[in-house]
Amino acid sequence: MARALTLVRRRLLGSIPVLLLVVALTFLLLESASGDAADAYLLSIGGGDAAFAETLRQAYGLDQSVWARLWLYVQALARLDLGWSVAFNRPVSDLVLERLPNTLLLMGTATALSFALGSFLGILAGSRPGSLRDRLLSAGSLTLYAVPGFWLGLVLVIVFSVWLRWLPTSGLETIASGKHGLARAADIGRHLVLPVGALGVIYTALFLRVMRSGMAEIWERDFILFARSRGIPRRRILLSHVARNALLPLVTVLGLQSAAMLGGSVVIESVFAIPGFGRLAHEAVSGRDAPLLMGVILVSAVMVIAVNLLIDVVYAALDPRIGGREAGP
Amino acid sequence: MNFLGRIAAAPGGGAGLAILGLLALAAFSAHAFFPGDPLRIAGPALVPPFSSGDFPLGTDRLGRDVLACLMHGAGISLLVGIAAAAAAILLGVAVGAVSGFAGGFIDECLMRVVETFQIVPGFLLALAFASVFGASLPVIILAIALAAWAEPARLTRAEVLSIREQDYVASARALGMHPLEIAFKEILPNALAPVLALAALMVAGAILTEAALSFLGLGDPNVVTWGSMIAEGRNVIRSAPWLSILPGLALMLTVLGVYLFSEGLSHALRARP
Question: In chain A, which residues have their Cβ closer than 8 Å to the Cβ of B197?
């Protein structure tokens, strides 16, 4: 436990300079856009004269230099203030907190299901590398992994919502349904089937492939040969030696993929009109809302750090060799 | 040719080469079969596929020829995919090599920057970059490259660090070779092989990212892309679902071709004596 705490403390301290770099680079990138928040606001209300634009710029603090504003932004961040969204006319942190649970629900469900299914199918494929079953599963997963997620979402909508009329096309729940408790949960569940399916199929293919190639490698190792020569039944070698050792790297892949998964949620949430965190990024871009986009990028970076930290702690708990080296004396 | 032959002989590699060859053929012959702007109105709107001899794959909402758009789109997808992956690898190899050779403080700083680019979701970065500098092909290519260069940088650095400790590098040093000569003749060529194996996968990632950006309306509006075709077809998804389905199938086939090619490539690289 003490080892895990040391690891957490060291990693948190180490992530501060990286986060500051994220803030500075994103700030400077968004700063190079032509037009600022005052322009965006004027556009949204139908225009105004130069004097009004000047008043707005003073109100937003846009009359100061870039570096002064960057410093102010960092100071506000220290108070957990992410600034003011121009497009929604609300604090960015409120918007993020409102949208984040929806995305976590969607991604958490998709990840959990595909992790279970992907590692199971991976064991099926990796139990006898080169067999017909392995080749079928490998080819199938490669094909599925080539499918663009947003397009798969659209195809699922065409089949299950337009043709079969089984499931709703978009949203997270029926608007103003007046449902409570279990009925509401069932409603949300029905809405989640297609987006979770679109995300999950691709993750499943990924987990299957990683699990399978990890197992194919472990079968060649000396300790497997040794286990065989000791006469341990093949089934036990498969489960408690090969599959078990291949499962740990799969957890690392989960961490490495977390950034890509968050990026993927932008498109999937736009396809299914889910009011989530990813869609917020798209809305920030369409609304030319730099503070909101900045907030979304920053929060997603924090989430990626948090997920990787969590995975490292789990890893250190599972594998005594790792924690000792990472946490140090 | 010998190397291509080895890729073709590897499992999957032949199919990958065939798919990519067909796509390249489609892209290069697009101007011969369908000269002029594929985005112009060519006939009646919403002709279903396989129903008219003039428009084998039908027309879209505005009467544009779907087959012409698909073939012109193949060129754009391949161009963006290859250019973005090449730019990302150039940048990544440069940063990774400098980091690995310099060590110390420079290495520490560069690796922090690489880490920064790895924890920000690449798609969000590309989205922000494209929205700031306006959607045009060079900006899209740069945006995707910027979102993808961190991995080759890390890989190159790790390779350089491990190769510089090898015996043959030590013997080159003992022979009195100039450090720059060692870097360029002994270390870098050997560090590049795993990066090249990654290159094909990066092309696939870049093609998918471009499609997703176009789908969200952040692609270059003056050229036809498969992503924008899918987005355009979405408006009539109930009455004409093929308009979204067809370009997606093309996209999937392309990415699958790149994956198969990449499997063949890594097979051929491993088999190299």
Answer: none
